[in-house]
């Protein structure tokens, strides 16, 4: 399939995934699941006919995304794993490295996901001698190998008291590239048999996590080391639901991107443009000690306690005398307001708020308009999609989550040590 044909197909797929207000979340997920599974099956049969002998870093992989900030609180992609390949829906997370799926090893504590549990074979176990195992155990895993021939156990903890415990395995991932190639690289990932803090009592829209962080255990790093792509990724999360994710650098627009150096000294595995100044409208709120990281695995944005208090104070002053009153009964998020009548969308109330602006370096700005830090709840109120990060265990880090990256093309270019962004209509990729 030629590149233009693939992009056209992907454009049509994204349009079908973009949820309209008249459709329920369940309906959108059902249709999306069917489309993505059809794509998976097609890729499998095509892969039997054509497998390039040599890797090609001049191409990229595109994944359509499903989900939204509210009410789902998640964006996920479908990946095909195994031989024959089976689909798994994975939460797209740039804030962690290891990809894992719920696993029957057997499972100790797993939620009911959209697909059957992944079942590994004994010859798929990754041993302690593997470099990825060494990396995992050096970066905070509770397990330490005693012998190189042992299996590699892991435990990953996330903010919010969530965790996954399991064993490292490897299997084939079926990937279709924009140059028409279909490859099935063997990649290491987590077979998670004990999940804590996740939706283990009810239905979960995902089967696991797609770790896209900077670490060696990440899918991006593994694909790069195998010579398949350049170490670049980008995502575009649509306000209307859905969006797209790409791995590789061939889809970076030639112009229109605001670039800034990526900071690596203070933030470890996180993608960070460094420290920033914060403005609310034209009001200068916080100086350049405002440390920022980007994390697509977080539904909402988090500010460290002092910064959060400064922001909420500025909002209170801004809303004084306006027809919005704090509503402590909503319960959707910690800080909500109601109007004289229920709000139907952000258009009903965004005129009462100003944009937030992050300033990096001398001239690099990121504008966060009201629709990228406020949500409209099912009760007809509006809530602040920026939460107190210190209370959530993030200490002094300010985390830019999905709510503030909606309709924003965000690019993480590890090859050139830079990050970039541009406003975009993320329910279509025709301009890439």
UniProtKB/TrEMBL annotation:
Active site, UniProt feature: 93, 295
Cleaved signal peptide residues: 1-26
Gene3D superfamilies: Acid Proteases
Peptidase A1 domain boundaries: 75-422
GO MF, one annotated term: aspartic-type endopeptidase activity
GO term, biological process aspect, one: proteolysis
Stretches assigned to coiled coil: none
UniProt keyword annotations, A-Z: Aspartyl protease, Hydrolase, Protease, Repeat, Signal
Family: Belongs to the peptidase A1 family.
Name of this protein: Aspartic proteinase Asp1
Organism: Zostera marina
């Amino acid at each position: 399939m030629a590149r233009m044909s693939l992009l056209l197909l992907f454009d049509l797929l994204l349009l079908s995934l973009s949820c309209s207000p008249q459709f329920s979340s369940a309906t959108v997920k059902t249709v999306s699941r069917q489309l993505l599974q059809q794509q998976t099956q097609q890729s499998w049969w095509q892969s039997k006919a054509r497998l390039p002998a040599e890797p090609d870093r001049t191409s990229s992989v595109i994944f359509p995304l499903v989900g939204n900030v509210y009410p789902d609180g998640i964006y996920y992609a479908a990946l095909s794993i195994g031989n024959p390949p089976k689909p798994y829906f994975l939460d797209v997370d740039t804030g962690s490295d290891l990809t894992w799926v719920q696993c029957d090893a057997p499972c100790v504590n797993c939620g009911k996901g959209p697909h059957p549990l992944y079942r590994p074979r004994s010859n798929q176990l990754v041993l302690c001698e593997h470099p990825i195992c060494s990396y995992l155990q050096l970066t905070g895993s509770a397990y330490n190998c005693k012998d190189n021939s042992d299996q590699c156990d892991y435990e990953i903890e996330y903010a919010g008291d969530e965790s996954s415990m399991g064993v490292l395995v490897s299997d084939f991932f079926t990937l279709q590239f924009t140059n028409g190639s279909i490859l099935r690289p063997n990649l290491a990932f987590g077979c998670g048999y004990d999940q804590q803090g996740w939706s283990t009592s009810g239905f979960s829209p995902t089967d696991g996590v797609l770790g896209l962080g900077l670490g060696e255990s990440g899918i991006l790093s593994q694909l790069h080391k195998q010579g398949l792509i350049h170490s670049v990724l980008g995502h575009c999360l649509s306000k209307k639901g859905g969006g797209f994710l790409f791995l590789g650098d061939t889809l970076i627009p030639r112009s229109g991107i605001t670039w800034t150096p990526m900071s690596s000294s203070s933030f470890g595995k996180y993608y960070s443009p460094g420290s920033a100044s914060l403005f609310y409208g034209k009001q200068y709120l916080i100086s350049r000690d405002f440390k920022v990281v980007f994390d697509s695995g977080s539904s909402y944005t988090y500010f460290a306690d002092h910064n959060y208090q400064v922001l909420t104070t500025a909002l209170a002053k801004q809303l004084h005398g306006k027809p919005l009153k704090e509503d402590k009964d909503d319960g959707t998020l910690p800080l909500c307001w109601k109007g004289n009548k229920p709000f139907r969308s952000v258009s009903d109330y965004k005129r009462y708020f100003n944009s937030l602006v992050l300033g990096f370096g001398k001239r690099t700005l990121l504008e966060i308009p009201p629709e990228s830090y406020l949500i409209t709840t099912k009760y007809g109120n509006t809530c602040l999609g920026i939460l107190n990060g210190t209370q959530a265990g993030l200490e002094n880090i300010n985390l830019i989550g999905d709510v503030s990256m909606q309709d924003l093309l965000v690019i993480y270019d590890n090859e050139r040590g830079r990050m970039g962004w541009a406003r975009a209509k993320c329910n279509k990729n025709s301009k890439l």
